[in-house]
Write a structure and sequence with these properties.
Chain A: One of its GO terms (molecular function) is transmembrane transporter activity. The complex is a heterodimer. By secondary structure, chain A is mostly helical. Chain A folds into two domains: about 190 residues, no CATH class; about 290 residues, ABC transporter involved in vitamin B12 uptake, BtuC. Chain A has 20 helices and seven strands. The radius of gyration of chain A is 31 Å and the shape is globular. Chain A starts with a helix and ends in a 15-residue tail after the last helix. Helix content of chain B is about 35%, strand content about 20%. Chain B folds into two domains: about 220 residues, Rossmann fold, CATH 3.40.50; about 160 residues, Response regulator (Rossmann fold, 3-Layer(aba) Sandwich). Chain B has 13 helices and 19 strands. Chain B starts with a helix and ends in a 5-residue tail after the last strand. Chain B is an alpha/beta fold. The chains are: A mainly alpha, B alpha/beta. Chains A and B meet through helix 5, helix 10, helix 11, helix 14 and helix 15 of A and helix 3, strand 7, helix 8 and helix 9 of B.
């Protein structure tokens, strides 16, 4: 492998120096390449690996496209004559193209073709082979990924090539990656000590977590290199400890915002109205299933809108869950006001009915809710990896909270809700139709639970049991924050989230959760009304 | 008249109506053989177990088309233990005592199996258990058609060490008996192979854990020590989806840190976008993508029976298929459904499996299986990248745990012992 990679490097290099020739674009005639491509259809991975390096060795510009197709699993063989083709699924056939010329071939029926299998090791080898070929590519994204591949393989043979690439590189971001890659390769080589010490300084300046992986093996070696690695590791560890603290807070806020989303609807139905609503989790679940249905419709009729599916699902989920909430309130709960035990049992029964209804309708398995492109992936903030989905959920939870506060404080509906919950008879005497306000309040709380379901569908699995996982946590948050106080729910959710994340690394996820519950029990003993207790007589009514 | 006819048809069309009929003392008790199905149809485990109930109804339906067993039609009795472990024992007792079923097919979690075990031993009935489990058990009345740890976990670890060159291991699991015992065995195995304790990280999470940020970033940290790292996952059920989503979102690719899972199959991947997961692995004894005629036939009939050509098949379904066919064959060999006779006749019974080979019931009530390693593909299926050259015999008492390595199980007469100690030469477990 090493030798072959070396050869590939030289071939590419010779391409660079050859006057009048495009960088890296060696051309080999088809007759030479054809049998090499055919060799990819080998019986086992070892032989396919050999074929891959054989292809890379030619240095032909078309090779990287063929190898990319192999990694993507688009390379097939016709079972009958073992001919290799690039296939794209098209109904019950594969639309076939010739891997070398790109010419269209006759479609191949699916049962007549066999995919060329790829495993992780082969994928790594292909990436390394392509890395050598595309380091001088015209496409910046290809150059970057080539440099990143060398950063992983740390192949000492690529140092010379990297020097060439660094000298030619204009983009400072890619240049930095290339320099990191070169330093990594130097550390892995038999270079003299001073070159290695310079390389240690170089990697320490870059991404610390990668650097730790590079430096740890050197730590044991004697002499100045070992010492330099040792002190570099110490300084990185110091930095990591600080970032660990920041990470706990950020992850805690993220967990807190999930708790907030789950609990905020309950803060209205339980906190403001005083209904012990065990079916709250199922409202969340219905919201998540609404997202699924919306995405199904979009996939079927307007795939271009998929990135907006969540925005469309939000009002839909609010309406569906809210309507279910109003029906439950009008149909069952209104007969049970003032009888908490019966309410508890009745709503628990409703939760079982709803779960089984969804299970019978959609099946017991998880359904697949897709992530729109803007929710997928992650970005690095210092040494912290933050995923976009989590970040959007923090933003989303806080905006839901703000909107809810506005509705309660600034709208007529909010005013009536507050009036009814504070003094039902007086409100009624003032001409407010209290039964309708009850229904709308319950509908609002359920609707909010529904839009929480839209957000949770992005990070959790959408199954009939989705709600059960959140109901206990929601009650804990509302009780801990102070019943009847939305601010209490916000602070309660965030502090529980952060406490959980600080305990998790020490105690583990299981014990951490137990510890948090024990702390809450102790806290409730001391302050039975939670963090922000409502004062006055309203609470007694 | 018409309602009477309907009732008779109902009695014979055993399948879906079994549950309803269970309550009316069977009119035709002599004409049918009753088979109990003990899988959760509601609660947390419904997601996995409902499919096995459907599989059993499908198999019974097929068998009846072929004329039933011993000239009698089979009749399914379906009960719902609702993912509630004590309820499993109650329902098992109801099946055996009231409904007088000849055998029971059921259970998924080890907790439910442990709950029903005393019932089956007390009433001397038969349970076919179709799920991979942690081993360390052998009962005269239970037939384990899923994988023991040596038929799944150990070959998977060997594959990673050899093919991927893994030197550092994260053993992540849900906090209950199966992951804990499996991880104990794996840790002992890795230590025996010279992996140091500092290169093994063990992590447990509660059932249904959904916030994986910290753990995934810990795995990333653990994996950046300059040695090739892999995750061996015994995470069970619902927690898998958020785990894989977090892995994908934090950008951990299979080429960097592969995850090999023992509880993730086609059914679990159904709720996931598998594009970011391509290359992560699973170890099973069957995949839907197995290229064998028996498998193609089975999938075709399953799709026809469920009238849904999207329904996937998975490993516990194959284990159910094997267990059911073994029972049928043993009953036919014994000429009766009497438990004692069938238990004696089933050892050594060999039936075809779905991967083109055959499975044999061993004297320890475990079966022989091939071990397959598959990589996740972007269509939610697995590509088989490795297969053991021969069949592996299920090892009920692990060779890597100090308490159990001296034990063997052999239910043939005259030994008839589930925990024979080869050191002390006595039946009855560990000697200290």
């Amino acid at each position: 492998m090493q030798l072959i990679r070396l050869l590939a490097v030289f071939l590419v290099l010779s391409g660079v120096f050859a006057p009048g020739m495009e960088a890296g674009a060696e051309t080999v005639d088809d007759a030479t390449l054809r049998p090499l491509i055919q060799a990819l259809a080998a019986e086992n991975f070892d032989e396919t690996t050999k074929a891959v390096s054989g292809l890379a060795k030619t240095g032909d510009a078309r090779v990287s496209a063929i190898l990319n197709a192999l990694t993507a699993g688009d390379l097939y063989i016709v079972k009958a004559d073992k001919a290799v083709f690039i296939g794209k699924r098209d109904g019950s056939d594969y639309a076939a193209t010739d891997p070398l010329t790109g010419a269209k071939l006759a479609p191949v029926p699916r049962n007549a073709a066999e995919k060329i299998k790829v495993n992780n090791r082969l994928r790594r080898d292909i990436a390394a082979a392509i890395g050598g070929l595309t380091l001088m590519s015209d496409n910046p994204a290809e150059r970057r990924s080539a440099a990143e591949t060398i950063l992983k393989t740390r192949d000492p043979e690529s140092i010379a090539l990297l020097d060439q690439a660094i000298a030619a590189e204009k983009d400072s971001g890619i240049k930095a990656v290339m320099q990191q890659a070169k330093a990594a390769a130097v550390l892995n080589s038999t270079a003299p000590d001073d070159a290695k010490i310079a390389a240690i300084a170089e990697v320490t300046a870059g991404n610390s977590r990668d650097a730790l992986g590079l430096l740890t093996p050197l730590q044991g070696s004697d002499g100045p290199v070992g010492d330099a690695a040792h002190s570099a590791i110490d300084s990185i560890n110091g930095k990591l400890a600080l970032w660990n603290g920041i990470q706990n807070i950020v992850y805690g806020l993220s967990l807190g915002s999930v708790l907030l989303l789950a609990a905020i609807g309950l803060a209205i139905t339980f906190g403001v109205m005083g209904v012990i609503n065990m079916a709250h989790g199922e409202m969340v679940m219905i919201g998540a299933y609404t997202t699924f249905v919306v995405q199904q419709i979009i996939r079927a009729s307007a795939p271009g809108l998929f990135d907006y599916s969540l925005l469309i699902a939000l009002p839909a989920a609010f309406i569906v869950s809210g309507a279910v909430g109003v029906v439950i309130e009008r149909g069952i709960i209104r007969f049970l006001y003032g009888r908490p035990l019966e309410t508890l049992l009745a709503t628990w029964g409703i939760s079982l009915v709803l779960q089984q209804a969804i299970r019978s309708w959609f099946g017991a398995s998880n359904v697949q809710v897709g992530n729109p492109s803007w929710m997928a992936g992650s970005f690095d903030l210092g040494l912290l990896t933050l995923t976009w989905s989590r970040l959007w959920i923090i933003v989303f939870a806080l905006s839901v909270f703000a909107v809810l506060q506005l509705v309660l404080k600034k709208t007529m509906l909010g005013l009536r809700m507050r009036a009814v919950t504070q003094n039902r008879r007086m409100a009624s005497a003032m001409g407010i139709r209290t039964p309708w306000v009850d229904a709308l309040t319950f509908g609002l709380g359920s609707g909010i639970a529904g839009i929480a379901g839209v957000a949770l569908s992005q990070i959790d699995n959408v199954s009939p049991n989705l709600g059960q996982g959140y109901i206990i946590d929601s009650f804990v948050v509302v009780v801990f924050g102070g019943v009847g106080n939305l601010w209490g729910t916000l602070v309660g959710a965030m502090s529980l989230g952060i406490a959980n994340k600080f305990l998790e690394p020490f105690a583990g996820a299981v014990l951490g959760k137990i510890l948090v519950l024990v702390l809450i029990i102790l806290f409730i003993q001391k302050r039975p009304r939670g963090l922000f207790a409502l004062k006055g007589r309203a609470i007694e009514a | 008249m018409s309602s009477l006819t309907a009732r008779f048809i109902g009695t014979f069309a055993a399948a879906a109506m079994g549950a309803a009929l269970a309550f009316s003392p069977a009119v035709a008790a002599d004409d049918t053989i009753k088979v109990g199905i003990l899988h959760s149809l509601s609660g947390t485990m419904a997601i996995s177990e409902t499919t096995l109930k459907d599989t059993m109804l499908f198999l019974i339906d097929e068998q009846n088309k072929k004329g039933g067993v011993l000239g009698k039609k089979l009749e399914a009795v379906v009960v719902d233990p609702a993912s509630d472990w004590p309820l499993f024992a109650e329902k098992a007792r109801q099946l055996i005592e009231q409904d007088k079923v000849a055998a029971v097919f059921g259970c998924w979690t080890s907790s439910s199996r442990k709950s029903v075990l005393p019932v089956f031993e007390e009433l001397n009935s038969m349970l076919f258990y179709p799920v991979q489990y942690e081993g360390e058990e052998s009962s005269r009345n239970v037939f384990y058609t899923g994988a023991a740890p040596n038929q799944q976990a150990i070959p998977a670890v060997d594959y990673l060490a050899k093919e991927e060159g893994v030197e550092r291991w994260v053993l992540a699991g849900t906090d209950y008996v199966y992951p804990q015992t499996t991880n104990k065995i794996l840790k002992a195995y890795l230590n025996a192979k010279g992996v140091k304790d500092e290169d093994i990280m063990i992590n447990y999470t509660p059932f249904g854990h959904s916030d994986w940020q910290t753990i995934v970033s810990d795995i990333k940290k653990f994996g950046s020590a300059g040695k090739k790292t892999a995750v061996v996952s015994t995470i069970n059920g619902d927690a898998n989806v958020p785990f894989y989503k977090e892995l994908a979102n934090q950008g951990i690719k299979a080429e960097d840190i592969p995850v090999v899972a023992f509880s993730v199959g086609e059914e679990e991947l159904a709720g996931l976008d598998t594009k970011p997961l391509v290359g992560h692995l699973a170890a099973w004894n069957y995949f839907q993508s197995v290229d064998a005629d028996a498998n193609a036939e089975f999938i075709k009939e399953w799709h026809a029976y469920t009238k849904n050509d999207k329904r996937v098949t998975n490993d516990p379904m194959e284990a159910t298929y094997i267990g059911f066919n073994m029972w049928v064959k043993a009953v036919e060999a014994a000429g009766t459904t009497d438990s004692n006779a069938v238990i004696d006749s089933i050892v050594g019974v060999s039936v075809p499996n779905l991967s083109g080979g055959s499975a044999t019931m061993m004297p320890n009530h475990h079966i022989t299986k091939p071990v397959l390693i598959g990589e996740v593909q972007d269509d939610g299926q697995f590509d088989i990248v490795y297969q053991t050259p021969g069949l592996v015999v299920g090892d009920e008492w692990s060779d890597y745990l100090p308490g159990s390595k001296d034990l063997i199980s052999d239910w043939r007469k005259p030994m008839s012992c589930g925990n024979f100690n080869v050191v002390s030469g006595k039946c009855g477990g560990v000697t200290n």
